[in-house]
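haha ok so turns out i had the wrong file open the whole time. this is the CORRECT one, sorry everyone. sequence first:
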Amino acid sequence: MPAAGAGYFLVGDAAAVLDLASSHGVLKAIMPGIMAAHLIAQVARCRTHESVAAQGYNDWVADWFASDAAALRSLYACLPDSPQ
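then structure:
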């Protein structure tokens, strides 16, 4: 399910969940809410279209997730008998 679409934005763990070792604590809980609120305000003020805001948010969440996943792969690769 996309993190955003027509009429909705998912934030926090509802948007994306990864191994807790990748956690950034409260930052991961707050930043998506701030970004979603910013984009909702842009749509409400007719500064962007809802679909553009949703796609931008989806890309942002996906990029953050991919970056954290890559960092985890690198971390786990250092472990003996690391998971695939």
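The chain is about 55% helix and 5% strand.
again sry for the mixup
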